[in-house]
């Protein structure tokens, strides 16, 4: 018994893990969640597929054996006990019971037996060799079925779990008949020993189907590889539907499916959604998830090695990869999932700090979160991989995002999945684009333009310092054009004594701001951009542009991609299971309920009425309901006493 309880406790803990920790996900998901060290340990322990892990299956086998032996040993005595009326109860043992009393004369065995029958007892009257007569009665003997049903339920549930635990699959892998595939990407590339036939009695697999496409296999996670499970039908996704809450969480998502039987060609059309699956040929199809199915994307692309303001146009498809050749440099552009809706909390104000060369580098501001949910529009995640295989991940939003008082086109960068995005924020101009910023960037990179702008800036300086001011402004603008605030900061640290650096920071900043203000006027005039009158909004745009320019000098990509249009295509994540053991689990659950009812709501009680030469003795006992018997016994004793008195008067 203690061994079985210990095994049940282990199964309970494992079931909690299997419920809390999402099972059968991609290995990279677990690495992101737990890190490379713990993800390996948890994988070794089988926590990513708890119910099919070797130790979980072994526990269930031992539990079946232990509980089965318990039933084998106890059912025969339980059955004998239920049939027995305990007619061998002796005079002394009845007198020693806690609930016993002597009844006055006049009562006969027939009357006593009839009374007990009326009270719901089954009775049996026996005459003994010593001349005494015993009326033995019982009620609630079916209570023993509760123990039998409860133990049988554990066995039946565990057997159902063993059937659905891929036990045969693991045996095939141990013998080498089944070999998981680590390398293949498509089902057609899997070797025969990695493909399971449609007659497999139990499996649980996943597949993503894009709108308008179909699939006739699912993929199973097995050890550190994958297996392909053939299906007796094909599944086509006609249309995927999704609704969202205002928080951005999915409210409901559903798939319009057409299931075509391979043998007969019979078609079944059904819309499935979460908790409303479809069962065909013993295989249940669940709506499990959704994802991007390869959406058409349009980009504006700026080559950051060239300061030109005019972007190139590029068409791409999400979930795909493309070569990116920039002269002698070769890269690989890998697009991840496209998301048409991004709901963020945008109500918290941005942090504000003292303006300095360090705090002015504002390319690391993240989208703030508070309690105001806002859809900030479509986004795309992509990676740019160099020849050495090193990649940087980017996340670009198509629409401008409001932060504080202004709107920005933002792109996040990170070099590892465990890192947070660092955000590049390019300010939006009055026409809702980044054209003014890109034109300002092109103008700033032109030495001739800088000289012209510096001449205009120096015109307002006193004659005696104009030459010095002109040289200082030229140096400041040239340094800023090369590396933004970071380059200016390095110049100050290397060439200015520490005691004078703070003073010179303010001096350089005033020169830089004045020159950039003139440069913005010249940019608007040169490229015939919409006029922008002096004011607070224009000043903020200029400051934000200087921040963004600094961020671009440190931007790790050779190109800047800005999402400019899309045609969304969705895919539906389906989970397909064949689980014959589920019916056994349901049966076991019914047995468990019956066992609970029998054990806790059926009270076993025993009663004896002994007639001998010394009088009539009435005794009762119960295995569990002692409190009920304390109230019930006096009532029965009093009723029998009354019957005895009435019969005596009649006589």
From TrEMBL:
Gene Ontology cellular component list: membrane
Primary residence: membrane
InterPro entries, per database record: Cyt_c_bgen_Ccs1/CcsB/ResB, ResB-like_domain
Keywords: Cytochrome c-type biogenesis, Membrane, Transmembrane, Transmembrane helix
Record's bilayer topology term: Multi-pass membrane protein
Entry's Gene Ontology BP terms: cytochrome complex assembly
UniProt cross-references to PANTHER family, sorted A to Z: CYTOCHROME C BIOGENESIS PROTEIN CCS1, CHLOROPLASTIC
The protein, known as: Cytochrome C biogenesis protein
